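Materials and Methods. Structural model of Periodic tryptophan protein 2 homolog. The 701-residue sequence of Periodic tryptophan protein 2 homolog from Pavo cristatus was retrieved and submitted for structure prediction as follows.
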Amino acid sequence: MRFVITKDNVALLYHAPGRKREFNAFVLDKTYYGPYDETTCIDWTDDSKCFAIGSKDMSTWVFGAERWANLIYYSLGGHKDVIVACFFEEDSLDLYTVSRDGALCVWQCDTELDGLKPMPPKEARQKNRVKDDDGFLEEPKGEEIHGKANPNEQEIREKVKYTRVAKYFFNKEGDFNNLTSAAYHKKTHLLVTGFASGIFHLHELPDFNLIHSLRVLELAFLYSSASLYIPSEPTVKVWNTSSSFCFVTFTDHSSGITAVTFTSSGYVILSASLDGTVRAFDLHRYRNFRTFTSPRPSQFSCLAVDSSGEIVSAGSQDSFEIFIWSMQSGRLLDVLSGHEGPISSLSFNPMKCVLASGSWDKTVKLWDMLDSWRTKETLMLNSDVLVVAFRPDGKELAVSSLNGQITFWDHENAVQVGSIEGRHDLQMGRKELDKITAKQSAKGKSFTTLCYSADGQSILAGGLSKFVCIYNVKEQILMKKFEISCNFSLDAMEEYLDRRKMTEFGSMALIDEGTGDEDGVAIPLPGVKRGDMSARHFKPEIRVTCLRFSPTGRSWAATTTEGLLIYSLDAGLIFDPFELDIDVTPSNIRRKLHQKEYTVAIVMALKLNEKKLIQEVIEAIPGNEGTVKFPSAGREKKESIQRLQSLYCEWNIYNIKYALAISQQRGVKRVAETSVDEEDMESDSDYLMQEVGYGSGRDLG
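The predicted structure was written out as tokens:
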């Protein structure tokens, strides 16, 4: 078996196991040099005779896995951006190359795989191994193959030749809609391409016929500012998780917002409020285009929309009714009655026309949309229902109740299939004004929000606690707990009260020195979420109000007392700014660069702490600018700047090597035996770095 791995701009061909009977798992056979920059993709022919690699220098190289007489290496150009993928046609040397700017090149080879001629054996190959100073036998090193972008006529003669027969361009919606991934199925000749905006295209090759196009929504999450203890601003904010910026805010509601949701298309946001309205917002024009109201004024506590986006439902907490509207016309279709308590949660089945509603009357009702909204089933529980959620495949229903349990139901047969006792996993903290311990207080706590993962195998649960729990649904066990905050300025963070704040009369928090009366501090009533914000010392309570998984399953978001938190498996989503203010934005940084205010631009880029943006600013500063001085900074800031300087200089070494190799050409074609020594490369690279201003010529301190 043979396999190829790439490191930087070098391709290494290994045998596994080696050709000889020896205890060596992987044996290096050949080393291929060709690209000037890092390699991005690899693809083999069906018979493993040749392979192709794509590079960041916009070139694609075809190498022979064996020493073929008519194919040792071949360089292909024709692109203006980084090569994302390259694919061989089935049982052929014909090649497809795809670049990041959305270009597809079709390359046709004049030779079939059977037409590759083996290299004639050399007359005298040294078969003996070389002895070292200690008398041990050394294994000869693998063969090295150096490719050239411009071979001479003698090397081209009687060799394999590629011809570009077509070049296609994908439809792009924006300037930054880069092609990020591609896959090719050789037997069916289908090419799938994915773009940064979430668009997928399915094409048939080689004619480039568009078969299908679909869109996966950008990972954006919603939260209500009312749930973040800002009752004076009942707004809906939409966040971009890639840039960590809020790009639109809707302020049409006049009271606290209780629920938000996307439609299946992703272009419409629905929000329910205590002002008695459900509003639909358009993400194309950023406007409120529908407002749904009830015949009698009602405060809506929950919201749900079906998978088609045509049916909108909201539950009332005062009239115990469920209202159904049409998205297209905005008319009220039906009012569902039957619950004997406030409606706490609504959820549509993703696969069937079934609506599940949970209420404080200890029941979950299933309503059939196709049967005139009649009650299909009623599930009885032992405690008040707080939240209901369907699994993504629609075959299971999760219910969280006031006794701290999460129960799982087969709603088709109205049978409970499992349960999780999650009260002990919450680990409630003790509030300053509590007169009972946290252990006793946790007996009355429960989960207030649930969310299935994208594959339906796990479920997220959160509530009046600083922990978010993720459970395995099948095994019904706790997989992991996430601590959402370590901020002890929030209430209910500590399990035990600080003994330094305890007196012989009780906790110092129960004594307000400025009141002057004997009653002390008024203890809030049960169920009060915000507390008394007119008090001198107001501490909001830590809580998780909503949890949502992203459609890809790679990240999930939580709205908490501290704000919107995003947990992700991808490290690229981490946003860690430094002394950020309202004027530090990517557009302002680029504007400063255009105005040649380089010092201001690089300081703003360091504050934003985006790696690609810092790199863009550093590379945009001309080498003859002189020195770029920072304002007075502490020792830690200077050390971080120096680390950034070394980091980006190390990253840029490949571009420097490329420029050095081009400069050494001096207008003549490179001879095959000529190669640049690695030590000379490093010394010349240091010289170039000083020339362009990354060395002593530019003061970054």
